[in-house]
Design a protein that fits this description.
With 499 residues, this protein is α+β, with helices and mostly antiparallel strands. It folds into three domains: 281 residues, no CATH class; 135 residues, Protein Transport Mog1p, Chain A, CATH 3.40.1000.10; 53 residues, Membrane-bound Lytic Murein Transglycosylase D, Chain A (Roll), CATH 3.10.350. The chain is 39% helix and 19% strand. The strands form five sheets. A seven-stranded antiparallel β-sheet has the order 10-11-12-16-15-14-13. It has a four-stranded antiparallel β-sheet with strand order 7-8-9-17. Strand 10 and strand 11 form a beta hairpin. The radius of gyration is 24 Å and the shape is globular. The two termini are 22 Å apart. The relative contact order is 0.10.
């Protein structure tokens, strides 16, 4: 959960809707355009000027949800590498902007017009500059081939919606934003579809070769993504949730082995040596850039430690019910009971005037009649609890005030027969809300990537035993170091660990 205010009832992204509507004005002026990559005629309903305007507005809206990772040196490095690739691309005249996003998700995506993003979560799993170049080259390929524009144009022609939505991770597809996701949002969430993803792979290989980066890095990246996908799918099944992988796992997206085979075929066609790999000095220099990078949730999002959710930036903590899953989203925290029997969503909003927690329910949340009310205040945190109806569903609402912010917990059950049982969990969780102690503040510090040189006795099991990553530590450490699923480090190998 990112620090800052949150709207109680989010509405449409008006800026994106306005840009898309403006692009429709020029439909009579657009139609078939020459594809910058293939030279063939593409059916598009958007001029390049409209494409650039769309990308600018989408980037502005994205910035309100996802923040750049606060490491200027790392940002400059990624921008410089991306510019080298972009200058060798089929659209070198565009101004490309590359951003490392402060998110633990493993993903990267491109907006129309040259706005390209990679998460720090994906960055942490890479093991060389050439692998980073392969990711950026793939995303540049989406821009140069105008994949976003082509999909939006096809959707317009078929009258499949006229708004562009909030974007990018499966974790964001909540009821609050689900209605906003459509053409561009779906592309960023799922990838651009089988043929376009394969085309972006081919273009990425070309751009790697043009800047003298070993094209074999593309195969390394695709192997990494396949390994991470297998790990994440198994983990998600065990936790009863949807897997979150690179561009998601959807039928429109080519399987990793298909992409590997296609990349190999294209490499042979281009006369590119896919066996050539990055030299050790370059890999070492890249790994040193990852020293200290945040791994997992950040201080701005809050962290889960030993059954307690701790938020260093906003200064609060609460206890998670035993056995419940916590999903930390940019705009909220969602707790899910075993089997999906109940959901408890926690969010925050800045207080603009003095009011009681009950008044906040009535005036800011615009709840109707309240029942089963009660005081849940602690000595320095006023709080109120009540049952209300939201969208025809009966829910438990708890509001607590801390440091000029209102924190709200909204709980709902799937089976009405279990409402009494789950209601007690909702109340217990809200009552556990407290100001962060000094000891908890130290525990709330984010985990970071650290480098270690393996010696004769170093094993993944020995590293996992000292790791804060929990039951999946061995698998994650192998993924981080290109040793998945059962590899072991060699003496002298530089390893990424998490501390």
């Amino acid at each position: 959960m990112a620090s800052g205010s949150a709207d109680i009832r989010p509405g449409p992204v008006a800026g994106l809707r306005g840009v898309f509507a403006a692009s429709a004005v020029g439909l009579a002026l657009a139609g078939c355009a020459t594809n910058p990559v293939t030279g063939d005629a593409d059916f598009v309903l958007m001029t390049e000027a409209q494409e650039l305007a769309l990308g600018r507005q989408a980037a502005q809206d994205l910035a309100t949800v996802f923040r750049p990772y606060p490491n200027e040196e790392l940002q400059r490095y990624v921008q410089a590498l991306g510019e080298r690739l972009a200058e060798a691309s089929h659209r070198p005249g565009l101004i490309y902007r590359f951003t490392v996003v402060d998110s633990p998700e493993v993903n990267a995506f491109a907006l129309p017009g040259g706005h390209i993003y990679i998460t720090r979560g994906l960055l942490a799993y890479l093991n060389g500059e050439a692998e980073l170049a392969a990711i950026l080259g793939h995303e540049i390929g989406h821009v140069t081939a105008r994949h976003g524009v082509r999909q939006a144009s096809a959707a317009q022609a078929a009258q499949i919606g006229t708004t562009l939505g909030a974007i990018f991770f499966p974790v964001l597809r909540t009821q609050a934003v689900g209605s906003l996701v459509n053409v561009l949002g779906t592309a960023l969430l799922r990838g651009y579809g089988r043929e376009m993803e394969l085309e972006a792979d081919r273009l990425g290989a070309i751009y790697l070769d043009r800047v003298s980066k070993p094209p074999g890095a593309l195969l390394d990246v695709l192997s990494l993504l396949e390994d991470h996908q297998r790990f994440e799918v198994a983990k998600a099944e065990a936790e009863g949730r949807e897997a979150r992988t690179y561009h998601g796992v959807f039928s429109t997206h080519p399987a990793s082995y298909t992409r590997l085979a296609e990349a190999t075929r294209v490499g042979h066609q281009l006369g590119v040596d896919l066996n050539r790999r990055e030299d050790m000095a370059s890999r070492r220099a890249f790994l040193e850039r990852l020293q200290g990078v945040t791994f997992g949730d950040s201080a701005a999002e809050g962290v889960l430690r030993n059954g307690h959710f701790l938020h260093q930036d906003m200064g609060f903590a609460f206890t998670v019910p035993a056995g419940w899953r916590l999903d930390n989203r940019p705009d909220s925290v969602v707790l899910t009971a075993p089997g999906g029997a109940a959901l408890l969503q926690m969010g925050a909003a800045d207080l603009t005037q003095r009011m009681s927690p009950r008044d906040f329910m009535l005036r800011e949340m615009r709840l109707g009649s309240l029942s089963a009310e009660g005081d849940i205040s602690s000595p320095d945190i006023p709080g109120h609890s009540a049952v209300a109806r939201i969208d025809r569903e009966q829910v438990r609402v708890n509001v607590l005030h801390l440091d000029n912010r209102a924190f709200y917990f909204i709980g709902a059950v799937r089976d009405p027969a279990r409402i009494a049982e789950m209601d007690s969990r909702f109340l217990e969780t809200a009552r556990s809300f407290r100001r962060l102690t000094e000891a908890e503040r130290e525990d709330a510090a984010p985990l970071r990537v650290r480098l270690r040189v393996a010696d004769q006795g170093t094993t993944i099991a020995s590293l996992a035993a000292q790791s804060p990553l929990g039951p999946t530590a061995e698998a994650q450490l192998r993924l981080l170091n290109d040793l998945y699923p059962d590899g072991e480090p060699e003496p002298g190998q530089i390893l990424k660990v998490v501390e």
